[in-house]
Design brief:
The protein is of the alpha/beta class and about 300 residues long. The chain has one domain: Rossmann fold, CATH 3.40.50. Helices cover about 50% and strands about 10% of the residues. The protein has 13 helices and 7 strands. The strands form 2 sheets. Strands 2-1-3-6-7 form a 5-stranded parallel beta sheet, with helices on both faces. The chain has a two-stranded antiparallel sheet with strand order 4-5. Strand 1, helix 1 and strand 2 form a beta-alpha-beta unit. The mean pLDDT is about 95. The structure holds flavin mononucleotide (FMN). Flavin mononucleotide binds next to helix 1 and strand 4.
Length: about 300
């Protein structure tokens, strides 16, 4: 059996997750890793200016140039694992650039499993990836999500420390940033069931089995919180893009205003917005539980987050 793993990872977190996912497959499958490499690397750690300047192209899914990946066409793979991370509630620019490149043709007619490594907001990014996979004619059979399980505010503070200072380790009262080591290691449990489903040709039942193993953890109030961002980000992205491309001085004022509003929304309005999200969650519980079931699955219906 031949498996292709396509991924991008700045800090190595997602690569670590993927290494664990394929750990128990190695004895039975040939596994090729292919890293997506943007022509112009994104900085890590980020400065505030470069970080927020990545918002418009992430949200509007404007691809950047990536290095050629001709080796992807050399083998007839039985399975493709696509590992990506959300940036600004959308697939990261490198992940999206790959999906829109000629190299993504390697996914056509292939069973594809998505693996997400994120803070905790991945729904809109996954809807966009599902749409791209459908356009590519891929057979999306599974999804595994690894997130930071700490509370929303804690994970925001630790990811800021990590992305802007490069410090993942705990400090003061704050824990380690990102997905826990244990959760990453535990993804090994998915390897054998994935292989079994591929071998038996029962891929339509895979996601249900992955869910039984705990592959996707989704709190209903995060749907409410993410919908708010999804309704606002494209307006800012379009406004910034109308002034210029990445790094253009003309768009800096728009980006700056967006960053201030986002920071205010996260830190000042956060207690109020979490409370209203909780109320909305309680009032619309039935509808939200249906939505949870949809987002845990791999089918795609346009407009689910609008
Ligand atoms: C520019 C940027 C935007 C991000 N936006 C989100 C987001 O919208 N939702 C989320 O859950 N995580 C977000 N993250 C966290 C990433 O999804 C990811 O977990 C983290 O960057 C580590 O990934 P790595 O394997 O590439 O190092 C963002 C990270 C960056 C750098």
């Amino acid at each position: 059996m031949k498996i292709l793993v396509v991924y991008f990872s700045q800090s190595g977190q997602l690569k670590n997750i993927l290494d664990n996912v394929v750990q128990d497959m190695k004895s039975e499958a040939e596994i090729d890793f292919a890293e997506i490499r943007p022509d112009q690397a994104f900085p890590f750690p980020w400065s505030s200016a470069t970080f927020f300047d990545a918002m418009p192209e992430s949200v509007l899914q404007v691809p950047a140039k990536i290095q050629p990946m001709p080796a992807l066409g050399n083998k007839d793979y039985d399975l493709v694992i696509f590992g990506y991370q959300p940036w600004f509630l959308s697939p990261s620019i490198p992940a999206n650039s790959f999906l829109q490149s000629e190299w993504a043709e390697a996914l056509r007619n292939k069973p594809v499993i998505t693996v997400i490594g994120c803070r905790n907001m991945w729904l809109n990014a996954q809807e966009k990836v599902k749409e791209q996979l459908q356009r590519l004619g891929a057979n999306h059979i599974g999804n595994i999500v690894l997130e930071d399980k700490h509370g929303n505010l804690t994970s925001t503070l630790t990811i800021i420390r990590w992305l802007f200072k490069g410090q993942k380790e705990a400090s003061g009262r704050l824990p380690d940033a990102g997905v826990s080591e244990r959760d990453m290691r535990d993804t090994q449990r998915y390897g054998k069931p994935i292989l079994r489903h591929i071998k038996e040709g029962r891929t339509e039942a895979l996601q249900q089995d992955l869910l039984h193993l705990g592959a996707v953890h989704l709190r209903p109030n995060l749907i409410v919180l993410e919908k708010r961002g999804v309704s606002q980000f494209p307006k800012w992205a379009t406004k910034a893009r109308s002034k210029g491309g990445p790094g253009a001085p003309e768009r800096k004022p728009v980006i700056k205003l967006f960053s201030r509003i986002l920071i205010t929304a996260i830190f000042v309005l956060s207690p109020i917005s979490s409370l209203t999200a909780k109320i909305k969650t309680a009032l619309k519980k039935k509808q939200l539980l249906k939505e949870v079931a949809y987002f845990k699955g791999v089918t795609y219906q346009a407009g689910k987050l609008s």
